Amino acid sequence: MTGDDDEERPLDPTTDWVREHLHRYVATDGGARTRTTSRQMTGDDDEERPLDPTTDWVREHLHRYVATDGENGHEWRGAPTLLLTTRGRKSGNLRRTPLIYGRSGQDYVVVASVGGRPRNPGWFHNLLAEPDVTVQVMADEMPAHARVAEGEERERLWGLMTGVWPAYDEYQGRTTREIPVVVLETQGR
User: Which of 41, 135, 140, 189 gives 20 to 30 Å between its CA and that of 118?
Assistant: First the structure.
């Protein structure tokens, strides 16, 4: 082993996954590490790009959706999907998630099920912290205000959403938490 082999080398972000999903640290002089943003890593300083999901099939679905303005990806296993962009409550980064949706008037309705896991998904915690979000349906991108449905409204919307995706009832049976139903209000925006 030579002295060169012992030297710390800068990280080489060679894949989109590394660029978008690791902690985005780069080596600097003397081996100190500093945080950088995905915009700095990709050279895109004009606009903040949302981070995509780390699960391969979800990320692939999202990329097809974005590349085709929803022509490929809007419908998933017979259900309509939208792209929800929230701001990370801890990181401050924009995060984009594909979700099954229903409609209630002009508003969109989504369910924070995570397949019935014990905890709510990260995107749900993000919109509780910052309810102003962005929704993309097909090629249409629009601002929305998120709120959690409660009481009779939740029950009505739960029925609507189990009509769109019947597995939600099964997911509710897997967990002790009440799975949240979220209204994405787009009227007047």
Answer: 135
Please check whether residue 50 lies inside any domain of the structure: no
CA atoms within 13 Å, Cβ hemisphere of 14: 3
Is 51 inside a domain boundary? no
Token pair for 178: 């009440």
**15: domain range?**
3-42
Checking if the pLDDT of 2 tops 80, the result is no
Residue 47 lies in a domain: no
Q: 9 and 94 in one domain?
A: no
> Quick check: is 49 in a domain?
no
Residues 38 and 72 both lie in one domain: no
Residue 24 clears pLDDT 50, i.e. is over it: no
Look at residue 70 in the predicted model and tell me its pLDDT.
81
Confidence of residue 9 (pLDDT cuts 50, 70, 90): very low
Cα–Cα distance for residue pair 115/175, rounded to 1 Å: 9
Taking the model in full, what pTM does it have? 0.72
**Count of structural domains, the chain:** 2
CA 74 to chain centre: 15
- For 141-158, what is each residue's pLDDT tens digit? 999 999 999 999 999 999
Contact indicator for 52, 88 with CB cutoff of 8 Å: no
